[in-house]
Amino acid sequence: MADPGTASFLTRANALLRKNLTYQKRNIWSNFRLIMIPLYLCVLLVIIQVLVDTQFNNADENRCGCQCTVTNQNGKCVNKTCGLEFSTSDQALFCPISSPPRWPPLLQVPRPDSRAVRASFLPDIGLPDESCRRTRTCPVTLLFTGNNHSLGASLLGNLLPSSVAVNSTDPLQGLAYNVLGTEIEAGDTNYLDPGISLNLTIYNIQSRCISNAAFSFSFGEEPLKFKKELKCAQGLNLWRNNSREVNDMIFKGYRKGNSQGKTNEIAAAYDLLNTDRNNFNVHIYYNSTYKENSRNTPTTLLRLPRSVNMVSNAFLQLLQGPGTKMLFEYVKEVPKVETRLRLDIASLIGPLFFTWVILLLFPVILSSLVYEKQERLRIIMKMHGLGDGPYWMISYAYFLAMSTLYVICLMIYGSAIGLKFFRLNDYSIQFTFYFLYVNLQIALCFLVSSIFSKVKTLTVASYIYVFLSGLVGEFLLEFLIEDPSFSRGWIIVLELFPAFSLYRGLYEFGEFSFQGNLRGADGMKWKDFSDSAMDHVFLIIIVEWFLALTAAYYIDKMSSSGKGPLFFLKSPINKSPSLRRPSLQRQGSKVVVEMEKTDVTQEIEKVEQLMLEPSTSHAIVCDNLKKVYPGRDGNPPKLAVSGLSLAVPSGECFGMLGPNGAGKTSFINMMTGLLKPTSGTGLVRGLDICNDMDRVYTSMGVCPQHDLLWETLTGREHLLFYGRLKNLKGSDLIQAVEESLKSVNLFHGGVADKPAGKYSGGMKRRLSVAISLIGNPKVVYMDEPSTGLDPASRKNLWTVIKRAKQNTAIILTTHSMEEAEFLCDRLGIFVDGSLQCIGNPKELKGRYGGSYVFTMTTSSEHEGNVERLIQDVSPNAKKIYHIAGTQKFELPKEEVRISEVFQAVEKAKSNFTVFAWGLADTTLEDVFIKVARTGQAFNVFS
User: Fold this and answer.
1) How far apart are CA 707 and CA 763, in angstroms?
2) Tens digit of pLDDT for each residue in 690-707?
3) In the listed set 561, 581, 615, which residue is the last one of a domain according to the structure?
4) Considering the domain boundaries, does residue 588 fall inside one?
5) Dihedral pair phi/psi, residue 838, rounded to 5°
6) Do 450 and 523 fall into the same domain?
7) What is the pLDDT of residues 142-181, one digit of tens each?
8) Whole-number pLDDT of residue 191
9) 195 CB-contact burial (10 Å; exposed 0-12 / middle 13-18 / buried 19+)
């Protein structure tokens, strides 16, 4: 098959996309169960809503009261009449009110134990001593300032009445001459004023309390009729020089404004500015912290009208005299129709539930990323040519599409079954919020995946994160949001934690839908965007998404390439191979060894010549490649590869032999980009493995020691994916896949279309070899490719590898001498990180196998006869094995002739009993053992 060339960016991206879609199709039921989770939670909310409607919203005490007016003979009510006159005070709020009650306007005053008194952090301006708090007689303090002190002093005297005005025939008109105050903040309507309906005292604010006498008055009409006691509270008017002093005193008196933690509250303050007899211009200071914005305490009315009336009346009396008054008799709400209690559970607890729903995607996406990392699938894809760009683009788009579909289903489910949380709020705002957050969540998954290496560990950690985030948001963050005394700045700091920004956005949706449902209005619209907290939540999410994505890509690039933290500052222009020069500095002790091994020395010289005169005839060139692992836990550094020089031309299979721990895998890992060399360099088709690894991968195939496969993908789907990465398309791709499957005996019997997870170990091994060879890569690394195969499959696999090496440079590691002799054109025996010998199998056996191996088994008493026999045949023979009558000897070939050995044995048989005997030439296994022992012995004594 012709060389398919290098796959383009889009071709590799298409390959990964097709693989992901196939993988997703294999997991269709898992995806279905995931998408059904939002539906289950929405149905649960509906069930809870039905219970709330039954027990609360439709309960008798939460709707207008009714009375039966007509009954039948059986005593069953036939007709009911409902209205205000049949209702309790609680039920009255739900009745139609055609003529709302009139309530006297009240002034908001601090509680007696919070009113301003003399303190170290406040100026001494005539405030009373703190002892008044014990008797609950502290005055209500009002501050004044302005440009005209004398005019201000006149207004101070007219502000509060000095006596109680009583009118028994019309209480409201009589009370209009007085200034009434309450400690209770107003409600959200004036149908029922909490300051009057609650069983608390109403204060009559006077300039001077003559006695502690209390006066009783009745307000309203049945059933909203209340009898209240008026208690005198002295008003204290104080002048300050300027508005800065007023601000300072109000701030320090507020319960969070002073370092001592004491509360010294001012009822109100007036800045007269440039007021004179011809110009009335006033700024009024009032306590706005009673205006809360939470689902439990709706936005309250402000008791500001009485403050305005007080200063207006004082100015009018200044101009017209004390007999002139502008009476403020009552406040009254507009008429209303019958209402019902509308507690929407989805809006109340929806933020907690939907936080869990959205965050459930976090462990799903994170598990997918860490699974590829744990099973080393990301690495094997990269080794077969999948670059970082296509991987990031397709993976991100894949997770984004999955997440977007998930949140769309959530919105559809919630709207279809009637949850006000979704129906009342603008869908475009909801979708934009969810879309922005899932982008942030995907970026966080990429970032967090760099921390974990095991799916089980991250699964536990991620689900703890999901459930704790929802619970902390519900029971801490929401409490802080609804606490007006808690700094808004700290709320924003808390929202920097991604799960809390999600909760805050859902909280705002719940708040608007709750209020909209309660009042029969819409929820959040774009016009409410700035009034809510959504503006800064959106900003936080966008900024964190950008930072998380940038950090994730940076860490991934640094870890996958083995580069330093400042790799992006290095010049992208690499030196040409023609400009490189080999390192001539070798370790002294090693030079002597190398000089004694002419084959290794010749290889070094060939490498040096190739480095000086680059040529494409050698696909792999390693020059003085070295890898040292740093010492840990008190252990010295470990030298894994020591100055390896090797050149492998195209069309050659080079076998690496060596005992376990010799450094073979470290060498393969350096050549495949998993490890960065400590020193030296390696060239693959003229490309440096330290700087051009991404380009090297496009022409490389790898069969790792352990099979790296997707359990749910079939063998055919694996080969289709890797074939596309090698730029195979159309009929060429189909043909290459079928030929690969046939060559490794995975085509017939439906094996090709079975999931790889159901393959036996041998079948997985054959599939891994087929993957490494598909697309005719120019360089292939095989790490023990025939491990676990039966003899027939092993022989067949050797034929496949031998046929594939025609235009490919193959480096193969194995422990099978038979495999090495059959496949490899040249062999190198690796011991303790260094190359001990190199050559084809015949040369190595000739060089290191200059002896015959003679074996004879006799009874124990004739062992001496055997030794004498061997001494007669070969005086320099060496015994290498002896156990229970069986002895082995090495006979130098130059001393013996095979015919002489046979004659000597025949003669010996007549003298003593010989059970068995044999004469064998040196095998490759003998060469390997001899070289390995010699190399290890030399390293020990050196």
Assistant:
1) 10
2) 888 888 888 899 998 888
3) 561
4) no
5) -150, 140
6) yes
7) 999 999 998 988 888 888 888 777 666 677 887 888 899 9
8) 81
9) buried
From 510, 543, 561, give the residue that closes a domain.
Answer: 561
Asked if the structure places residue 584 within a domain, the reply is no
577, 686 contact by CB (below 8 A): yes
**429-471 residue pLDDT tens:** 999 999 999 999 999 999 999 888 899 998 999 999 999 999 9
My answer on whether 386 and 480 are in the same domain is yes
Quick one: CA torsion of 861, 863, 869, 870, rounded to 10 degrees?
180
Contact 649, 809 (CB under 8 A): yes
Residue 941 confidence (pLDDT):
40
Q: For position 866, which CATH number holds? A: 3.30.70.100
87 assigned to some structural domain? yes
Same-domain check for residues 326 and 195? yes
Going from the C-alpha of 665 to that of each of 277, 638, 658, 660, the distances in angstroms are 98, 14, 10, 9
Name residues of the chain where pLDDT drops below 50.
1, 257, 292-297, 571-595, 940-942
HEC string of 360-379 equals: CHHHHHHHHHHHHHHCCHHH
Query: How many domains is the chain built from?
Result: 5
Checking phi first, is residue 151 left (phi over 0); if not, alpha (psi -120 to 50) or beta? alpha
Does 817 lie in the same domain as 692?
Answer: yes
361 and 328 in a single domain? The answer is no
Output 303-306 pairs: Cβ under 8 A, ≥24 positions apart. Answer: 303/105, 303/106, 303/107, 303/108, 303/182, 303/185, 303/186, 305/105, 305/331, 306/105, 306/106, 306/107, 306/179, 306/180
589 to 594, 681, 836, 920: CA distances (angstroms) = 9, 21, 14, 36
Helix, strand, coil tally for the chain in percent (to 5): 50, 20, 35
Q: Is residue 75 part of a domain?
A: yes
- Counting beta carbons within 10 angstroms of the beta carbon of residue 333, is it exposed (0 to 12), middle (13 to 18) or buried (19 or more)? middle
372 shares a domain with 243 = no
Phi, psi of 816 (to 5 degrees): -95, 115
Q: What range defines the domain where residue 744 resides? A: 594-840
Q: Are 268 and 307 in contact (CB under 8 A)?
A: yes
Phi, psi of 224, deg, nearest 5: -95, 60
Q: Does residue 72 share a domain with residue 38? A: no
Assess whether 613 and 756 both reside in one domain: yes
